[in-house]
Amino acid sequence: MDDHGRGSGPRPTGSGEDPLQPPPPDPGEPDPLPYEGVWRFTAPAVDASVPQARHAVRDLLYRQGVPVSDDLVQGLLLIVSELVTNAVRHAALLSPMLAVEVAVGAEWVRVSVEDNHPYRPTALEAAHSETGGRGLLLVREITLEAGGACDVEHTSSGGKVIWAALPLKALRVS
């Protein structure tokens, strides 16, 4: 059962159905908000795809009228940049194409990057003298600070999807 982003979870649950096809309407369920949906695009695993993916996600959020704060947009765009950069740097040999997906529900926005490389990366601590190696740490910290969740999942084709889901509404601390 798909919660269409209206449940308490930060990302939709899988139903075994085609995720790009909307489920049949449930008469007891409210109509989706105008900005809700799932968008997916592919790009070659080359450096030029990093800014292109970032701009595409930014334009999509604004075009759809997703109610996101500037801080949330900046966090999402940094996450997209880091995830696409990782796919370009570490997966391009086995995965010449990558896919970026943006899923927006009533209460969350989820970005993911999929490639066909089987290696499941982990966030590593990098030495201060190194100029790279902190991308997944940065993704994790941005996500946690926003009250979201992130993870890596294997695909049925043997690749992986790295995703981060952030809430659209600010966290309220009681």
Secondary-structure class: alpha+beta
Strand order of the main beta sheet, please?
Answer: 1-2-3-5-4
Strand content: 15-25%
- Rounded mean pLDDT is 81
DSSP E strands, number: 5
Query: From the alpha-carbon coordinates, what is the Rg to the nearest angstrom?
Result: 16 Å
Question: Which residues sit in consecutive blocks of at least 5 with pLDDT less than 50?
Answer: 1-17, 170-174
Span between termini: 32 Å
Notes on the protein architecture:
28% of the residues lie in helices and 22% in strands. The chain has helices at residues 49-64, 70-90, 135-145, and strands at 37-44, 97-104, 108-115, 149-154, 160-167. Strand 4 and strand 5 (160-167) form a beta hairpin. It starts with 36 loop residues before the first strand and ends in a 7-residue tail after the last strand.
Please outline the helices and strands:
Layout: E1 37-44, H1 49-64, H2 70-90, E2 97-104, E3 108-115, H3 135-145, E4 149-154, E5 160-167
Antiparallel strand pairs: 1-2, 2-3, 3-5, 4-5
Helix pairs in contact: 1-2, 2-3
Give me a quick take on this structure.
The protein is of the alpha+beta class. The protein contains 3 helices and 5 strands. α1 packs antiparallel against α2 (70-90).
Task: Looking at this protein, list some descriptive labels.
alpha+beta; five-stranded antiparallel β-sheet; single chain; globular; disordered N terminus; 3 helices; disordered C terminus; 174 residues
